[in-house]
Amino acid sequence: MMSGRSTIATRLFWTVVLGGGAAIRYGAPALAATGAACLAILLHRLDRPRRFRALVRRISRRHAATLALRRRQERFLDAYGNTIEDGWLREREYFVERTVLPLVEERGFSDYAEPRFEEMVEIVERVACAHELPDEMETPEDGIAYERYCAELLGEAGWDARPTGASGDQGCDVIAEKAGLRLIVQCKRYGRPVGNAAVQEVAAATLHWSGDMAAVVSNAGFTPAARKLAGTTGVLLLHHDDLSTLAPARRAGRRVLAAGR
Which CATH architecture has domain 139-259? Predict the structure, then answer.
């Protein structure tokens, strides 16, 4: 693909060639028009970095709610009071690579992909920080209360949801049914990312409770191991903010769950 520098050189070259030919025939007016055209091309080139940043912001703002939620999920305080955000840093780069870069290249900024990668990441960070989410402190800290809270959020989405209680749940904290589909949920009110043990437990609980689908719901994020296991077992990894819009859907001939408004 032709670089931005070679493109502007080509445009200027042909503008001068064609304008010069016109100036020979039409004189000063054509020469002035040629100069104005060259100036417009140069100004457009100088404005290119601003247009690039504006494009990245527009793309990021389309996903602002999801980015803000993922930022909340993937950052936590460790036992020493340090903010651990490795998961969020990986998420930012993943978003830029998979979502931003293809659109940036499509709009003619492919030459910016590598030298301005960190600038794109910084824009994503600012967009995620600027989007307001519900106050996390509103969620119950007690485990049993958090299960009831999750059941209430599912109820807002039209699910017939009920907590199973503290004993005999076999890894299932909430059972929810809608449109003939049974959802088995394990709830984790954590101060750190949830590991793959929760995924294993809810997958087993789905068999025990004859569920159609399974999900682990948490206020925190999930470890890479949990995400990997969830991908192979079909367990959904959700933030509780997802529950009030969760709806059953069909895809490829089988039932799945999808967030819908």
Answer: 3-Layer(aba) Sandwich (3.40)
